[in-house]
C-alpha cells in the first residue's frame, strides 16, 4: 500500500503552500453568494487563506479576496474567519 497523497493549496495572501486542511476557505457560490466554507467541500470558486490573524487582516486590507473571487466580500466573512481562528 502506497503513501496517501496530501492535498496542498496556496494561501492567496502569503503565496505559501500548505496542506488543504490547515487553511481557511472562502467560496463564491454559483448563485453569486460569498460564504466561509468550514467543510472545504462547498460548490463554487474557492480561495484559501492561512490560519493567522495577520493573513486575514492583510486579505481584508489589500482586498485580495475581492480580486480573486471577482466579487465584493462582506465584512461578516472576515469576522467568520477570525471567529474560526478563536475557536481552534
What's the structural blueprint in terms of helices and strands?
Layout: E1 8-10, E2 17-19, E3 23-28, E4 34-37, E5 45-50, H1 53-62, H2 64-69, H3 75-87
Antiparallel strand pairs: 1-2, 3-4, 3-5
Helix pairs in contact: 1-3
- Would you identify the regions where 5 or more consecutive residues have pLDDT less than 50? none
Strand order of the largest sheet: 4-3-5
Taken from the alpha-carbon principal axes, the silhouette is: globular
Number of strands: 5
Helix content: 25-40%
Name of the top-level CATH class: Alpha Beta
The portion of residues forming beta strands comes to 25-35%
Q: Determine the structural class based on helices, strands and strand pairing.
A: alpha+beta
Q: Count the helices. How many?
A: 3
Average pLDDT, all residues: 94
Helix and strand sequence: EEEEEHHH
- Per CATH, what is the topology? Hypothetical Cytosolic Protein, Chain: A
Largest sheet: 3 strands, antiparallel
CATH architecture call: 2-Layer Sandwich
The CATH superfamily turns out to be YlxR-like
Short description:
The chain has helices spanning 53-62, 64-69, 75-87; strands at residues 8-10, 17-19, 23-28, 34-37, 45-50.
What does this entry look like structurally?
- The protein has helices at residues 53-62, 64-69, 75-87; strands at 8-10, 17-19, 23-28, 34-37, 45-50.
- With 88 residues, the protein is an alpha+beta fold.
- The strands form 2 sheets. The protein has a 3-stranded antiparallel β-sheet with strand order 4-3-5. Strands 1-2 form a two-stranded antiparallel ribbon.
- Helix 1 packs antiparallel against helix 3.
- The longest helix has 13 residues, at 75-87.
- It is globular, with a radius of gyration of 13 Å.
- The chain starts with 7 loop residues before the first strand and ends with a helix.
Amino acid at each position: 500500500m502506497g503513501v496517501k497523497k496530501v492535498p496542498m493549496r496556496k494561501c492567496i495572501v502569503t503565496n505559501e503552500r500548505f496542506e488543504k486542511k490547515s487553511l481557511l476557505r472562502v467560496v463564491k457560490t454559483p448563485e453569486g453568494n460569498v460564504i466561509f466554507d468550514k467543510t472545504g467541500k462547498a460548490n463554487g470558486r474557492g480561495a484559501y487563506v492561512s490560519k493567522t490573524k495577520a493573513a486575514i487582516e492583510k486579505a481584508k486590507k489589500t482586498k485580495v479576496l475581492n480580486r480573486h473571487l471577482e466579487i465584493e466580500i462582506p465584512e461578516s466573512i472576515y469576522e467568520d474567519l477570525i471567529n474560526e481562528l478563536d475557536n481552534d
